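To illustrate the input format used throughout this study, we show a single complete record. The first block contains the structure-token representation of the backbone; no residue identities are included at this stage. The design step must infer an amino acid for every position from geometry alone.
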């Protein structure tokens, strides 16, 4: 089969690799029809992780079940399924509690597993013609009859839409809150979209890409372009000097300043400043315990200079982590089914698998107009 393979920093290649196959009775094999490129793939693409060369990348996967293991009950050949980027076993302590991003069984010795992802187990990615799905009964969300028609909406349920929703949840959002989102990538836009769907009284989003911010403006968010205005002043103005009730961190450790220099503590400290006393911060932007590519020794150890004093003084709360996609994807699929959510508005590019190298290059540069890419492995011969 054809697959997108990581070849080293800033290099991916479409290659012929052995077909995905059943390895365990609880597996299914899915013919991938849609698979997105994610901001998280870029950490690997840039060589900022220890993702092994030769591995297939891709964790935002949707497709049709073509082979079913003997131990699978609920999922059938021909089903169209949406796959959370996290792989959960369904029976460990964390999966039982709905914390499927921290499964203790799927990747022994580490809490969390995913497809085609550094440190997250040996599982191949889905930017390929076929994908092996472990613990298939637990991990497959079988889609309703409009699956093909709304495929570009449903594929957003594999990661970024639930991740955006999770950011609002981690921030403890309630109806009528004032919500601040920092970061204008796909995750930030989905966090802002989730906050609007969840009836925030006000949603502000900070970034510096006019094309990305425009998407959020179109669904009613207040956009704050830090290239034009001082974001702290703008937030103070929009909140009558009080600060936001809730904030979503949607940038992560590769946050950069206006000159493009990385400053991993930049957004975190901005949020402490911008959130009101007793408010809360949900962090879904990725932070890592080791970052050999960072500029300072402290940052290389995965540490940041965090404004703990102000955070304490303001009595704020914070929660972090990968999104437990399964905790939200069924509910969000219902919103799509009932035409209450159309997350596909985020997609700027629908491409074939062969176009992946060019897509990675452009998405990595945050080239204008490249907000989100979906690859369609079935098209154009793969
Ligand atoms: N927690 C999870 O489950 C989860 C899931 C998916 C992605 N992520 C992470 O979320 C983060 C965002 O991913 P993404 O897919 O949106 O892609 P992305 O990397 O394109 O998004 C980040 C955006 O933040 C902007 N940015 C950088 N520095 C900034 C600053 N100082 N102020 C404002 N904006 C700034 C970037 O220009 C970019 O538009 C990444 O770290 C990714 O790994 C986490
Ligand atoms: Zn992703
Ligand atoms: Zn588990």
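Output of the design step:
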């Amino acid at each position: 089969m054809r697959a997108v393979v990581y070849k080293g920093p800033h290099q991916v290649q479409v290659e012929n690799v052995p077909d995905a196959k059943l390895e365990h009775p609880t597996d299914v094999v899915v013919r991938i029809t849609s698979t997105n490129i994610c901001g998280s793939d870029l950490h690997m693409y840039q060589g900022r992780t220890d993702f092994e060369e030769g591995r297939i990348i891709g964790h935002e996967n949707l497709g049709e079940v073509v082979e079913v293991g003997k131990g699978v009950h609920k999922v059938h050949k021909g089903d169209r399924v949406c796959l959370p980027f996290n792989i959960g076993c369904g029976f460990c302590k964390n999966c039982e509690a709905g914390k499927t991003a921290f499964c203790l069984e799927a990747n022994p010795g580490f809490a969390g597993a995913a497809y085609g992802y550094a440190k997250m187990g040996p599982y191949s990615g889905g930017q390929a013609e076929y994908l092996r799905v472990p613990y298939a009964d637990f991990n497959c969300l079988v889609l309703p009859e409009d699956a093909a028609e709304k495929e570009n909406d449903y594929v957003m349920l594999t990661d970024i839409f639930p991740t955006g929703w999770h950011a609002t949840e981690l921030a403890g959002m309630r109806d009528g809150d004032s919500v601040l989102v920092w970061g204008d990538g796909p995750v930030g836009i989905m966090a802002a979209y989730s906050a609007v769907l969840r009836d925030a009284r006000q949603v502000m989003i900070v970034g510096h890409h006019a094309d990305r911010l425009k998407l959020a403006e179109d669904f009613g968010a207040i956009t704050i372009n830090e290239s034009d205005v001082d974001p702290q002043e703008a937030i103070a103005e929009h909140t009558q000097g009080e600060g936001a009730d809730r904030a979503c961190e949607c940038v992560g450790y590769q946050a950069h300043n206006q000159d493009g220099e990385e400053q991993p503590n930049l957004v975190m400290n901005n949020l402490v400043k911008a959130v009101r006393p007793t408010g809360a911060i949900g962090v879904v932007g990725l932070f890592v315990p080791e970052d050999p590519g960072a500029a300072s020794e402290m940052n290389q150890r995965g540490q940041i200079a965090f404004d703990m004093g102000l955070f304490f003084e303001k009595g704020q709360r914070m929660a972090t982590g990968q999104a437990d996609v399964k905790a939200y994807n069924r509910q969000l699929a219902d919103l799509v089914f009932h035409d209450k959510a159309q997350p596909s508005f985020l997609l700027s590019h629908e491409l074939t698998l062969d176009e992946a190298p060019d897509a990675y290059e452009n998405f990595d540069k945050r080239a204008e107009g490249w907000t989100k890419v979906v690859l369609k492995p079935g098209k154009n011969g793969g």
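Structural context for interpreting the output: The two ends are 9 Å apart (CA to CA). Residues 38, 40, 59-60, 85, 159 surround zinc ion (ligand 2) (CB under 6 Å).
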